Amino acid sequence: MQQNTKTPPTPADELAYQLESCRKQIADLKAWETQLEAKFIELIGQKDEGAQSQKGAYYRVTTTAKINRRLDVVQFEALKKSGVIPPEAVEALVTVKTDLNTKAYKDLHKTNPEFAAIFDRCVVAKPGKTSIAVKLL
């Protein structure tokens, strides 16, 4: 830790330094993990999509390739409107996700607390992880 010679570090300074050091080590370990995974893919190979395994004397290693797919909503709506996609295909292939608009929900608590209290009955809220930001001065 680079210290100012006039002012001793505070307990928060000490913890911040430890956290920065920890995060650096984690980043280094993640880079090493990525390199090892690349070597496994080179050694074992991978399918275009799905799993491929190789058994050694002590370990079975499996590579699993994934393809992330999402719907291009603009293209979908254009095809649906043109009639190219039959309605039964729309029902079978596309789902609509109901989700909470958190900005509107927070605004509701400010603008209409009475209704917000009623609406709260259908909202599941769990505490998230508190983030810590450390910046060297």
Describe this structure in words.
There is one protein chain. By secondary structure, this protein is mostly helical. About 50% of the residues lie in helices and about 10% in strands. It has helices at about 10-45, 75-80, 85-95, 100-110, 115-120; strands spanning about 50-55, 60-65. A two-stranded antiparallel sheet has the order 1-2. Strand 1 and strand 2 form a beta hairpin. The longest helix is centred in the first third of the chain and has 34 residues, at about 10-45. The protein is flat, with a radius of gyration of 26 Å. The relative contact order is 0.07.
**Portion in helices:** 40-55%
Structure classification: mainly alpha
The N- to C-terminal Cα distance equals: 12 Å
Using only C-alpha atoms, the radius of gyration works out to: 26 Å
Largest sheet: 2 strands, antiparallel
String of helices and strands: HEEHHHH
* General form: flat
**Total DSSP helices:** 5
- Spatial sequence of strands, sheet with the most strands: 1-2
Offer a few descriptive terms.
mainly alpha, 5 helices, 50% helix
